[in-house]
Amino acid sequence: MILGNSSVTTLPASISKLQALEVLDFSENGMTVVPEEVFKLKKLKSLLVLGNKIEVVSDKYFGDPSGIQGTGGTRYITF
């Protein structure tokens, strides 16, 4: 789902219902929080949030770095 540069400032909790979603790009918007629901997307491979002012991302998603990997891995996040 490409939402880049579309003035999105929040994502609804219902985003977690999109279980087949593999790419979520909300770059260049007014986001300050990566909602917890995003991390419930089991098939999400790429989360792009460049150009936002992200202030809050739960520490529990970064405690085990094996879940977040670079290209060639299963998941990655680009800030």
Task: Summarize, please.
This protein has no helices and 3 strands.
What does this structure look like?
This protein has 79 residues and is low in regular secondary structure. It has strands at 23-25, 46-48, 76-78. A 3-stranded parallel sheet has the order 1-2-3, with no helix packed on it. The two termini are 17 Å apart.
Would you spell out the secondary-structure blueprint of this structure?
Blueprint: E1 23-25, E2 46-48, E3 76-78
Parallel strand pairs: 1-2, 2-3
Low-pLDDT residue spans: 65-75
Share of helical residues:
under 10%
User: Total strand count, please?
Assistant: 3
- Please tell me how large the radius of gyration is: 12 Å
Strand order of the largest sheet: 1-2-3
Whole-number mean pLDDT: 78
**Element-by-element helix/strand order:** EEE
Secondary structure tally, helices: 0
Structural class: little secondary structure
Shape: globular
Most strands sheet: 3 strands, parallel
> What separation lies between the terminal Cα atoms?
17 Å
β content, as a range? 5-15%
Structural key phrases:
3 strands; little secondary structure; 3-stranded parallel beta sheet; 79 residues
